Amino acid sequence: MSGAGTPDFFYREAQRLGYVARSAFKLLQIQNKHKLITPGSSVLDLGCAPGAWLQVACQSLGPLQSGGAVVGIDLKKVKVPSAHCDARVQTVSADVVKLPMDQKKGFSVILSDMCPSVSGITTRDAALSMELGMRALELAVGRAAASIQQEGSVDGPSAADDTDESGILLSGGNLVIKLLESEDIQDFTKICKPLFRKASWLRPKATRSSSREIYLICQGLQS
């Protein structure tokens, strides 16, 4: 695999197929393996810039008449890509942890590709990644995540005081969270297993060899 910033197979394929970034192939692999997004799904994409996951999510909804919706949230203002997207895709410029109230509705799939600004200090970057991951989890499932974290004495960041009682992920819904590999990431498995029917890890083939990114795939939120 080529180093960061070097054009490689996935970069060239993204250009050829009209994706705005090579990261599209990460979600494509996740989707091909787990079928998280189905026709009619309502999808929330956290940290959606530059928009590649919006494209794949919209494609996964099927034809326009199948319905569904994709909402992308990012601190940056993100323009909906013209390729692979249709009227079902919209973006909101906002802080994920301070979502506009009109966006706090139920979603059947929540995708978090959020990543902190990498400092190069491994432990610091991993801790920031864990914090973003926990924010995404608590947004999805509400106080249930914080409760399990406390009951199990699982170390790690929590925003329990700022967390809504109920999350915005619908019962039976799916959640994807990107983290940077560290000895602490198994904490997420301990928290998610009681909440979801299945929780597993995946390192997509499109991930650069120099990257420590890994994805936690949570399927079937339990009522």
From TrEMBL:
Keywords: Methyltransferase, rRNA processing, S-adenosyl-L-methionine, Transferase
Ranges for domain Ribosomal RNA methyltransferase FtsJ: 19-220
Catalytic residues as annotated in Swiss-Prot or TrEMBL: 178
Keyword Protease: no
GO molecular function list: rRNA (uridine-2'-O-)-methyltransferase activity
InterPro entries the UniProt entry points to: RNA_methyltr_RlmE, RNA_MeTrfase_FtsJ_dom, rRNA-MeTfrase_E, SAM-dependent_MTases_sf
Domain of life per record: Eukaryota
CDD domains documented for this protein: AdoMet_MTases (cd02440)
Similarity comment: Belongs to the class I-like SAM-binding methyltransferase superfamily. RNA methyltransferase RlmE family.
Stored PANTHER family: RIBOSOMAL RNA METHYLTRANSFERASE, RRNA METHYLTRANSFERASE 2, MITOCHONDRIAL
UniProt-recorded name of the protein: rRNA methyltransferase 2, mitochondrial
Annotated organism of origin: Linum tenue
